[in-house]
C-alpha cells in the first residue's frame, strides 16, 4: 500500500503540506510572538511617554505656581526681610496653596537661608542640587527630579526679584507610592522609582506597594543597563524571563537623577500569542486532512490577515490609531483584529485624556494658564485695526477666609459656580489661572472696558448657596485693552495684574489699566526696595544720620491764637533718595505701611524729634513737638516702652511730646488703639487726633479716646467760601473739641482773614503756610527768635 501511487501522492502532498503548514505556522507564530513582545514594548514606551508628559506637566504647573508665588508682593516682602521664621511661615503658607511637600529659600549665591524640611534641604548650608541652580540662572527658573534625603522630589527653583534678584524660591513635591500608583492607573503598567546610587536595593516609590503586590528587595539588573559607558541613557528597554522592562532616566543630563522603571508581565504580553499558537496548531492539523486547494485556500486565509495585523502593528508603533483593522472574519484572526482595534482606541483615548488634563483645570474644566497663554497669543496675533480685546483678571475677595471657615469642599464648589457664571457671559476665552484667579476675555473695543467690568461684576457678585452655606461673594477685577495696553501675553497679563492690585488697594470693584501705570508700579517697587534698605540701616544703627539715609525732619510752627506764641510745632518727615530724588511723604508713607517698614521710620523720627527737643532745651528754647504715628504703630504693644526709652535716653519730659494719630487709624482697631493711647498718656505724652472730620468716628468713640488735642483737617479750610454753612461746620468742630476738653488746632491756614475768623470762634492754635512753611531746626529757632 505504501508503494501505491495514491499513497505516494498522498504522502508527498502530506509532506509538502506539512512542511508548508509547519513553516507557515512557525512564521506566523514567530511574527505573532514578535508582535506581542513589540506590543508590550510599545505599551511600555507609550506608558513611558505618558509618564514623561505627566511629569513635564506637573513640573510645568509647579514652576508656574512657584513663579506666581515668587511674584507675590507679600512673598517678596518676606524674602527681602531675611527673617528665617517669617520665610518659613510664608513657605508653609504658599506651599500649602500649591500642594508642595516643602519649600526653601536660597540667597543669590545658592545657600539655604530658610527651609521647611531641614532633613531634605538643611538650613545655612549650600543647596544639595547645584545643577538646579545652574539651570535656573541660565533659564530664569528651572525644574527637575532630584533625590533629597533618600526620596525623589519634583523640585522647582525660581528667582525672587524686588525688582533686582534677592534670592531663589524653591518648592519640592514628593514622588511617592501614590504618585507611582497614579501612573499605573493611567498606563496599566507597574511603575517604580529607583535611586541612581547602586547601593540602594529598594525602590524610592513603587505602584505595587499600594496594590498589595510584592516589592523587589534587590536592585534589578535592568537599572545597570540604563547606565551606558558614557553616562545615563535617556531610556533603555530589556526583555527577561520575568517580563518586559523599560527604564527612563528622569534627567538624562544629570548622572545622579533617579530612574523610573516600567514593567509589563511577559505572560500578559504573550497571552495573545499562546492563544494564536493553539489555534494555529489546530488549523495546521485540519489542513493536513484537506486537499491542495483547501490547503492553498487555508494558507491564503491565514497569511493575509496576519500580514494585515503585522502592518497595523507597525502603524500603531508609529502612532497612527485612526485606521481600523478589517474584522469581517468571525474566527480567532478576527478576534485578534478586534483586539488590535480595541488596543488602538484605548491608547488613543488615553492620549486624548492626557492632553486634556495637560491643558485644563481639573476642578472647573476651564483651560489652564498654559492653554490660555497659547490661545491668547493666537488671538493677539490676529488682532487688527477693527478688532480689539478686553482682558479681565478676576480675583475672589476673601476667598481664603471662605475656604477656612466653610471648608475646601465649599470653596471648590464656589470656584466651580464662578466658572459657570463666567461661561454664561459667552466670552471669547475664559480660564482659571490658579487658586481663586480667573481670566475672562471678550472681543470689545477698549472704550467698553468699564462697561465690561460692570457686566462682569453684575454676573459674578451675589449670593451663592451650597446646602446650608450661603455666601455673599464679591470679586475684584483688573482690566486691560489689547493691543493698545499690550501686544504680548506677558505684557497684557502683567498690566491686568497691576490694575487688579490697584483696585484691591483702593477697595474698588475693578480697575482699568492706565497708560504709564506700569512705570509707577515699578517706581513703587523701587521705593519699597529702598525703604527696606533704609529700615535695615535704621535697625542696625548704621543710618541714623540724614547724610546716610536721606531722611530729615522739618518743623512747622503752630501759632497760639490767643497769646500769639509759637512754642509748638509739628515734626514732618522728608526723604531725598540718591537715585530716586525727593520722594513725597504722600508717596512713600503708604508704601512703608504696606511693606512693614513704617515702624523703623517711626523709630527714626522719634529718635530725631526727641533729640531735637533736647537740643533746643539746651539752647534755652522750650518747644512742645508733635510727631505723627501710623496705624501699624498703634497696633504695636511695645510702642509706649520704645517712646519711654527714647525720652529717658535724651532726658526729655514726656510732656514735651505730642503724639498725633489720624481719626482713620483710630477706627481701624479702636480697642487696641485705646490701649496704646492709655499707655502713652500714662507716660505723660499728649494725644492729638489728626485729620478730624475724615474718619467717620462717632462722638461716643471720640469720648473714649480722651485725647488732649483735636486737629481740624486742612480740607475743610481749603474748601472755605463766603457761605456761612462752611464756617458753621468748622465752628461746630471747635465747639465739639472744647466740649470734650481738647485743645483745637486748625490745619491749612493760609490767610490772615481765616486766622482771625478762627480766633473769633475760639480756635486755640493755627498751622499752615499762612503762619509758616515747614522749616529746618535752625530756621525754626531763628523764626522763633524773630517773633520774640
Description of the structure:
The radius of gyration is 39 Å and the shape is elongated. Helices cover 52% and strands 21% of the residues. Helix 28 links the parallel strand 27 and strand 28. It starts with a helix and ends with a helix. An eight-stranded mixed beta barrel has the order 20-21-23-24-25-26-27-28, surrounded by four helices. Strands 2-1-5-4-3 form a five-stranded antiparallel sheet, sandwiched between helices. It is of the alpha+beta class. Helix 20 packs parallel to helix 22 and helix 22 (639-650) runs parallel beside helix 24. The longest helix has 67 residues, at 5-71. The chain contains 29 helices and 28 strands.
How far apart the termini lie comes to 154 Å
Radius of gyration: 39 Å
Q: Rough shape? A: elongated
Strand content: 15-25%
Outline the low-pLDDT stretches: 4-10
Give me the secondary-structure category. Answer: alpha+beta
* Helix percentage range: 40-55%
Number of strands: 28
Largest sheet geometry = 8 strands, mixed, barrel
Number of helices: 29
Describe the strand arrangement of the main beta sheet, using strand numbers. Answer: 20-21-23-24-25-26-27-28
Mean of pLDDT:
81
